[in-house]
Amino acid sequence: MPSSQKSRSTLLLIIAGIAVAAVVAVFIIRSSPDSASPAMPGKPIAEAPKPAQPVVDLGPIAVHPSAPELAAQLTRNDLDTMARIEAVNQILYVYRQGFGGNPSGQNEDIVAAILGGNEKRTALLPRDCPAIQDGKLVDEWGTPYWFHSVTAKVMEIRSAGPDRELFTNDDVFVQ
């Protein structure tokens, strides 16, 4: 048998051996009693229990000296929608000055941070601010603002406008 044919036969034998080993490994893994996978009907996939988060009291929340002024600006009756959004933007500006970036998350997460749920335990608005309803910062129509953190220093703030639907022609927003 010529040398090239022998090399080719050896190579094919090695490839076949690897393929057989892979098939055997897959069979062993799938038949293991510990592996519940979607490919095995009849075996429900159980979610691992989530560890309980310890409740840690970090002490009292300090109210920032400008909180009353920020709340008053946000809730003035003579402001139009854009001026109200600018007031929200001013609150976020003060937050960025103290924390180096925007608060993260959805509206309720941002409100929690603004109300003192942050590492410095400092509130930028009082808890009884009329612009906060059900834990969310709302526009003059009672619709929650939509927040999108563009960068650590830039936050898009959007009011749904009088139709109370986001991303329509009457939305008012700043970035």
Q: Which structural class do you get from the secondary structure elements?
A: alpha+beta
Helix content: 25-40%
What kind of sheet is the major sheet? 3 strands, antiparallel
What characteristic shape results from the CA principal axes?
elongated
Cα distance spanning the termini:
76 Å
Beta-strand content: 5-15%
- Strand arrangement, major sheet: 5-6-7
How many strands? 7
Gyration radius, to the nearest Å? 29 Å
Mean pLDDT: 82
The sequence of SSEs as H and E is HEHHHEEEEEE
**Count of helical stretches:** 4
Spans of at least 5 consecutive residues with low confidence: 35-40
How is this structure best described in words?
The chain has about 180 residues and is an alpha+beta fold. It is about 35% helix and about 10% strand. The chain has a 3-stranded antiparallel β-sheet with strand order 5-6-7, covered by helices on one side. A two-stranded parallel ribbon has the order 1-2. Strands 3-4 form a two-stranded antiparallel ribbon. The longest helix is centred in the N-terminal third of the chain and has 29 residues, at about 5-30. The protein is elongated and about 95 Å long.
